[in-house]
Structure formats: structure tokens, C-alpha cells
Specification:
Cobalt-precorrin-4 Transmethylase, domain 1, 3 domains, Methyltransferase, Cobalt-precorrin-4 Transmethylase, Domain 2, 353 residues, 5-stranded parallel beta sheet, 15 strands, alpha/beta, 5-stranded mixed beta sheet
Length: 353
């Protein structure tokens, strides 16, 4: 039996299943740096250490030892199926007819980094910038389409002292497809622990990044609050319709609205000069999503739209009006069909910003 074991980013993050598999094996095969976190589990075992770049040799030795009837553990940091030894083993076992393999997952760098940053992951892509085995053209294409698809992107192996071109090219592609203000999290592991930084895509190149760094780049809805990086999933916060909002939408549904700036309103401009007043009362309230500038008034349980001007932008109004009449046919639909309204909100954020 060959157990391909992911030990995560540190001993504290190892699973019980991984610990038990290591205890039960007879032979340990690993890159030198992966031995230290598990040294106390290795008494009486045959230890085979190999350097970086010896992945094929490690896998062949594991297969040989297994065919001799021994229980073998081949160790990966993080998860063995994510840029780890799992792929190497399965690429080779087709040569043999008598090999049994199990994969024991571990905490991978993307989820570990995310846990340090807050909650930045929603739909996301994991891309390695190492061009040792992958053409640079392929890396650039993956970054481009992940960016255009508005995925959150976790970057592995961003750059080393001698390998900087993939990072520079990926960064250029990212700036072509994402706003410079897009939140970015940098999680760097070292001898003194883990350093975490939250910055923006525009400022990313001003930070020190190396092979021990995982970079998480947000999508169009990612925001930063209290130092945490958050990508909302769109959960619905239930709320009654405010009487003034109800009155407004009764007139709205009768076609009695002022499109664009309402210069006759005594409160104009309640946000900024030139604002569209088509949706005087936000149909998504309370969205509970700070990606457009709203926020909770702490300890009051009240959602504030004071810093959100998104609903008053002409391009946003145009986008919303394309589907709003299909969703809201009577005022109570603002409450009954709020999930559909929040999906419309997400669609318009992703389409027009």
C-alpha cells in the first residue's frame, strides 16, 4: 500500500487520518523539508529523503517498496492532489498491475491562506506560476480567463529569486482584467510564523513575495472590513419593507417615477451631484453586503447606505431595469422575491461594476 499523505502547512493543521497513516507505515519518503514536522512519528521507520526536483524518483522508490510488501507513506506539504505528489504517483502506476494507492488529503495553501485573511473565497481558481513544467503561455491564458470569469484567484509559487517573469506577466494580465482597487491578500510563511497583509492589486508589486507566499486576489464583489478580506456569497437578510419605501414603489410600479436626477426633490443630492434618483429607495435593502459601500452601524443592527452610491449610477440603473419588472410586479415582491433581487444585484455588479 502507498499512502500519499498531505500534512498541511504545519503540524498543527494535520488531520487525524494523516497522523494515523504515518504511524502505521513502515517506509517514509519525502522532500527533506517535510520530515521535520513529523520527526517524532518516525521512530523505527525507514526514512528516504530526496531533494526538490526528485519527484519521479521518489514515486518510483515508493512503488518499489510497496511491491516488496511494505506500507509506504509518501509525504506532501499541503494537499497531495494540489501541485503535490498525488499527480506524480498516479501518472506512474499505469506501468504496474499490483499497486494499491490511497490519497489522504491535507489543508492546502489556498484554504490555509484564506483562513488567515477572513473569508475571501467564493468560486475560485488556483493557479501556480511555476513555469518549470508549464509553458508561460499556458499560465498567462489561465490567469486571463480566471480574471475574465471574475473568479477569486489563489496564486501558488508566485516568484523566486531567479524566476520573476511569470509573476510579472501574470500581474500585467490581472491589471488588464481587474480593477487596481481589487483587494488582495498576501500570506507568507517563514521560520518566525505566518505574516498576513491585505492590500490592493494596484499595490501588489510593492510587497515582498517569494515561493513561501500565497496570494489571493479578490473578485468584483470582494471587500475589506475591519482588516478582513471578504467575498460575499449573497445570503439574504430578511427585513420588513419600510413604509416610505413601500409608498415609493407603489408609485414606481404605476410608472410615476423620475428617471435620472430628481432636481425637484428637497433632499437632492442625497449622495452626489448628478446622481440617478430612479431608485430613490434601494430595492435590495438591506443587502448586508459591503462590496458597494454599505455597512452595519455597529451594535445598532441597522444597515447604512450612506457610503453606497452604486444604485444611483446610470449604468447600474440601466442594468437593473432590464430584469426588475420581471421580478417585482407588486410591492410585496420586494420581500417575497428578495433572493431573485439579490441575484440581479450580483449580476449587475459583475457586469457593470
Amino acid at each position: 500500500m502507498i499512502s500519499v499523505i498531505g500534512i498541511g502547512p504545519s503540524r498543527e493543521d494535520m488531520s487525524i487520518r494523516a497522523l494515523n497513516a504515518i504511524k502505521n507505515c513502515e517506509v517514509i519518503i519525502a522532500y527533506k523539508a517535510y520530515i521535520k514536522p513529523i520527526e517524532d512519528l518516525l521512530d523505527g521507520k525507514e526514512i528516504i529523503k530526496k531533494g526538490m526536483g526528485d519527484e519521479i524518483e521518489r514515486a518510483e522508490i515508493a512503488i518499489q517498496k510497496s511491491r516488496e510488501g511494505k506500507n509506504v507513506a509518501i509525504i506532501s506539504s499541503g494537499d497531495p492532489g494540489v501541485f503535490g505528489m498525488g499527480n506524480v504517483i498516479f501518472q506512474l502506476i499505469g506501468k504496474y498491475s499490483d499497486i494499491e494507492v490511497e490519497v489522504i488529503p491535507g489543508v492546502t495553501a489556498a484554504t490555509f491562506a484564506a483562513s488567515k485573511l477572513g473569508a475571501p473565497l467564493h468560486d475560485f481558481a488556483v493557479i501556480s506560476l511555476s513555469d518549470i513544467l508549464t509553458p508561460l503561455s499556458e499560465i498567462k491564458r489561465k490567469v486571463e480567463f480566471a480574471s475574465k470569469g471574475d473568479f477569486v484567484i489563489a496564486i501558488y509559487n508566485p516568484k523566486s529569486k531567479t524566476r520573476k517573469e511569470p509573476f510579472n506577466e501574470a500581474y500585467r494580465v490581472l491589471l488588464e482584467n481587474k480593477k487596481p482597487s481589487t483587494p488582495v491578500g498576501i500570506v507568507k510563511s517563514g521560520d518566525n510564523g505566518v505574516d498576513t497583509t491585505v492590500t490592493t492589486l494596484g499595490e501588489l508589486k510593492n510587497h515582498e513575495i517569494n515561493m513561501s507566499t500565497t496570494v489571493i486576489i479578490g473578485n468584483s464583489m470582494t471587500y475589506v472590513q475591519d482588516g478582513y478580506m471578504i467575498t460575499p456569497r449573497g445570503y439574504m437578510i430578511r427585513s420588513d419593507i419600510h413604509p416610505l419605501s413601500k409608498e415609493f414603489y407603489e408609485h414606481f410600479l404605476e410608472g410615476e417615477i423620475v428617471e435620472g436626477p430628481n432636481l425637484e426633490c428637497e433632499y437632492y443630492p442625497c449622495h452626489e451631484e448628478g446622481q440617478s434618483c430612479t431608485f430613490c429607495y434601494c430595492p435590495f435593502y438591506p443587502c448586508g453586503d459591503s462590496s458597494t459601500g454599505g455597512k452595519w452601524i455597529k451594535d445598532k443592527g441597522v444597515w447604512s447606505c450612506q457610503d453606497c452610491t452604486w444604485i444611483h449610477e446610470d449604468k447600474v440603473v440601466k442594468c437593473i431595469l432590464e430584469k426588475f419588472p420581471e421580478i417585482v410586479k407588486e410591492v410585496d415582491d420586494l420581500k417575497k422575491r428578495k433572493k431573485d433581487l439579490l441575484k440581479l444585484r450580483r449580476e449587475c455588479i459583475q457586469r457593470v461594476g
